[in-house]
Design brief:
Blueprint lengths: L5 H8 L2 E2 L8 E2 L10 E4 L2 E4 H10 L7 E4 L12 E4 L1 H10 L18 H12 L6
Antiparallel strand pairs: 1-2, 3-4, 5-6
């Protein structure tokens, strides 16, 4: 369990732009490459929304994601954060149209174009080796 000392709490909340109780509280410091707030704690990077949840509610249940009901990755308002399974989080993502469903050559790590895959499949069907 993480112990939140007054210094840690002051440092954490100084990086959050608080608004009304039911509005988003936006993380205004570093973001990771996926758009979530990044906070250094005990030599490790922690997600700001997860820490906000833990500050308000205690430790997150083991193996659970912390989900945003507001769908804003930089939000740290504990009222907007709920624990859920990975399955619940992914279902919520898809239902709300936030799932980036890039496939084939649109995937950032793609090494082949759609045309080259078609050509390779055709050659294989014609009996050429996969090598």
């Amino acid at each position: 369990m993480t112990e939140f000392t007054p210094n840690v709490l002051n440092r954490f909340w100084s990086k959050v732009e608080k608004a009304g109780l039911d509005e988003c509280w936006i993380w205004i410091a570093a973001l990771d490459d996926t758009g979530y707030g990044a906070f250094g704690l005990n030599g490790k990077k922690r997600n700001s929304h997860r820490l906000a949840y833990e500050i308000a509610n205690g430790p997150a249940p083991v193996g659970m994601d912390i989900m945003h009901t507001c769908d804003r990755r930089a939000c740290c308002n504990p009222r907007h954060l709920v624990a859920g399974t990975r399955s619940q989080n992914m279902r919520d993502c898809v239902e709300k149209g936030r799932r980036n469903q890039r496939i084939g050559e649109a995937t950032p790590t793609a090494k082949l174009t759609n045309e080259s895959v078609k050509a390779l499949r055709q050659w294989h069907a014609e009996g050429y080796s996969e090598r």
